[in-house]
Amino acid sequence: xxxxxxxxxxxxxxxxxxxxxxxxxxxxxxxxxxxxxxxxxxxxxxxxxxxxxxxxxxxxxxxxxxxxxxxxxxxxxxxxxxxxxxxxxxxxxxxxxxxxxxxxxxxxxxxxxxxxxxxxxxxxxxxxxxxxxxxxxxxxxxxxxxxxxxxxxxxxxxxxxxxxxxxxxxxxxxxxxxxxxxxxxxxxxxxxxxxxxxxxxxxxxxxxxxxxxxxxxxxxxxxxxxxxxxxxxxxxxxxxxxxxxxxxxxxxxxxxxxxxxxxxxxxxxxxxxxxxxxxxxxxxxxxxxxxxxxxxxxxxxxxxxxxxxxxxxxxxxxxxxxxxxxxxxxxxxxxxxxxxxxxxxxxxxxxxxxxxxxxxxxxxxxxxxxxxxxxxxxxxxxxxxxxxxxxxxxxxxxxxxxxxxxxxxxxxxxxxxxxxxxxxxxxxxxxxxxxxxxxxxxxxxxxxxxxxxxxxxxxxxxxxxxx
Length: 467
Description:
Layout: E1 3-9, E2 18-23, E3 26-30, E4 56-58, H1 64-67, H2 70-75, E5 81-85, H3 86-117, H4 131-137, E6 141-144, E7 149-153, E8 156-162, E9 170-178, E10 181-187, E11 210-214, H5 225-242, E12 246-249, H6 255-268, E13 276-279, H7 282-292, H8 300-307, E14 318-320, H9 324-329, E15 337-341, H10 351-358, E16 365-368, H11 377-382, E17 387-390, E18 393-396, E19 400-403, H12 413-420, E20 429-433, H13 437-451, E21 455-456, E22 463-466
Parallel strand pairs: 3-4, 4-5, 5-6, 10-11, 11-20, 12-15, 12-16, 13-14, 13-15, 16-19, 20-21
Antiparallel strand pairs: 1-2, 1-22, 2-3, 7-8, 8-9, 9-10, 17-18
Helix pairs in contact: 3-4, 3-7
């Protein structure tokens, strides 16, 4: 039995998740994510393995830090199948097309700015890939259902299980049989939370030979779900009192829908007054429609709402703004409004324009409800910098900066240990991935101390031989 595992991303950091599995003459790529940390973006341009040497991609879910380099890979010569759940296919099409559009816009903006300034930037002034490149990936997607085994060939099969992280997200179990011997490798993808709204709880496994476990929030405990609503209500009421706006940088997939879910509950409970809420993200609007059309992925409580004919994501005062003109008009409205816009880490999209209009006014609030990777604009703001550079201009940060941790769709330290504890016998080895060094290191230490398992924290391009 000889299996090689190489860590092409999500090793020592959170974004860029990608793992190369080689066995029985096959090369499989589990995820192919976009690097979003500023200092690591250069990795997006050069893939460590020839794309045409990869036989298939197993995609855990549609978030760009797991899927965002696929069009670049296809552009480089990848022609195999991309296996993922049926709803991930729908979501990935929306997100990759949008990513291609943003890549094109950003490249054009950089070209104009650098021409004006008479200089060259750190990264190439061309898009990593275009909308056309993204569209060329769609025919390669092969939808599968939870629990359905996919035969890759040469004794290798993959099975997707509900991760409870975002709609259609999967944990991937890869089984490899050689000469009558079998090994099981579980790729956790991003692990969701127990008792979170909308989606079902994460799948727990009772056995595995090797496990790759994410560690995004492995060094903290999240607030309870009740605290989320309390904190959200407090931010809204205090900002209304100050006479300002609330700008919420939001990931279009899952976080935007979860935020609408809680806003609906707060309105129904009359804990917040009537106010205008703008979903200023064409992608988030399209993804919310995918949610509405795939309610079979919901948990029992959310399904009960749907059966009553109620939408979990709609309430009076909610405005969906698709066009650029509608987006620009928001900043001329008087009185407090909430603006939900992407991207979630403020690395692109409409939220940057809203930050320009709002971040320097003390009556406003910038509310973070998602993870902010090192080096991103969102992380800079959250870390308390005095000014930020947006579109080539420096703006003082005078708005209130707030964060609600309980919104996270990632398991925290206790939940990660709960997931690992489902294994009835120690795996041969656990690899702690998809986390910054402090977080991954802490989870590794806890696994060693409490479970006494063989565990390691791989680094970028490290290769492990699995026997």
